[in-house]
Amino acid sequence: MRSCRGEPVDRPPVWLMRQAGRYLPEYRAARAGVSFLDACRDVERAVEISLQPLRLVGTEAVILFSDIFVPVLGMGVDLDFRPGPVIAKPLRTLEDVEAISVPDPQESVPYVFAILRRLRAELEAEAVPLLGFAGAPFTLAAYLVEGKGSKDFGALKRMMYREPAVLRALLERLEEMTVGYLNAQIDAGAQAVQLFDTWAGLLGPADYVEWILPSHQTIARRLARDRAPLILYVNGGGHVLDPMIESGADVLSLDWRVDLAAAARHIGRRASVQGNLDPCALAAPPERIAAWVRELAAGGRAARGHVLNLGHGCLPETPVEGVRAFTAAARALA
Ligand code: CP3
User: Fold this and answer.
1) What is the pLDDT at residue 334?
2) Chunked in runs of 10, what are the mean pLDDT values of the chain (334 residues)?
3) What is the DSSP string of 275-298?
4) Residue 60: helix, strand or coil by DSSP?
5) In a domain, 323, yes or no
6) Helix or strand (DSSP H, E) at 249
7) 33 touches 65 (CB < 8 A)
8) Does 197 contact ligand 1 (Cβ within 6 A)?
9) What does the pLDDT read at residue 253?
């Protein structure tokens, strides 16, 4: 928490994006015979899965087990996971967009807040911070318009250039949802919140400033950030570091294509940084992983704070020993 706020620390803390997930045999066991969505809705099971990385691989923060598409279920969108989100009727017209609602998340997805309250009660004694999260409007819209994951999100980009008013209307609804959803997570005990704008890096700098930055700024302004710092993640965002700084987020989470030391120097006191080992690098021998951790920690010092993490989510085929080597090396930093 101090690193997020840029207060002095002995060494950077460590957690991993997608730390609760398919690389862990214990996760696969907890998921046996249960669909992903049912696991997200089952409070006891989701609490157990959220806590697994803390006990099994030694991370120093816990992130809610859920998905960025869980709150979208409450908006009247027919959505399933196979294993990524698949939308039965992709949103393509203004009528499609106007048919989705922005419900009170406490009513549409009450289990998310029950999970957070249980986790916070569990973690309070150990002083382990609890992270909440949400998908950013653009990344949610990418799947809702495309219907599923994609390499270039062509349908989304066509909408952006041919029917900007439709995309604007969709982003506005998603922005409203995201603000209410994250503030409700903070009320339920989340001590920091991460906004995942995984696909925002698909846009060039001018489009990013037009389509992405204003919504990040609005979200940053409307969140209860005195109670929970905001972490902003953009994948492939090295070319939009300046507008990321302008978002007002407390922590900028960078992927591995960015030189962390150079980025940290550029950002300076304006924000903390998070990242940024290539998730695939966890397949390397432990001593190499430890060397990268020392290098990242040294580079991160130029920013006002640094949270050690990966540059994107942990992959299903990641060796558990690699994850343990990563957290152990962080804990061993002087
Ligand atoms: O970080 C964590 O451990 C918390 C939980 C979390 C999940 N998804 C669990 C999950 C978080 C923070 C997410 C975010 C998410 N989900 C993003 C943004 C970050 C990113 O990784 O880019 C996106 C784009 C999604 C959408 C999504 N959900 C995809 C593309 C997939 C399938 C492919 C994949 O990488 O796993 C999911 C499913 C999903 N979300 C799983 C988990 C553990 C796997 C489901 C399973 O076990 O079958």
Assistant:
1) 83
2) 98 98 98 97 98 98 98 95 96 98 97 98 96 98 98 97 98 98 98 98 98 98 98 98 98 98 98 98 98 98 98 98 98 94
3) EEE-GGGGGS-HHHHHHHHHHHHH
4) coil
5) no
6) none
7) no
8) no
9) 98
Active centre residues (catalytic): 18, 22, 31, 67, 143
Between the CA of 162 and the centroid of ligand 1 the distance, in Å, is 30
CATH of the domain at 32: 3.20.20.210
SS3 state at 81: strand
Mutate to test the pocket of ligand 1, among 40, 68, 115, 116 (most ligand atoms within 8 A of CB): 68
With respect to residue 14, please indicate whether it lies within any of the assigned structural domains.
Answer: no
The shares of helix, strand and coil residues in the chain, as percent rounded to the nearest 5, are: 50, 10, 35
Domain for residue 312, yes or no? Answer: no
d(CA 175, CA 178): 5
User: Into how many domains does the chain fold?
Assistant: 1
Task: Say which amino acid occupies 260.
Answer: L
C-alpha separations of 129 from 17, 27, 96, 116, 228 in Å = 15, 21, 39, 11, 10
Parent domain of 73:
20-251+258-267
Residue 309: asked if its preceding bond is cis (omega within 30°), the reply is: no
What's this model's pTM, rounded to 2 decimal places? 0.98
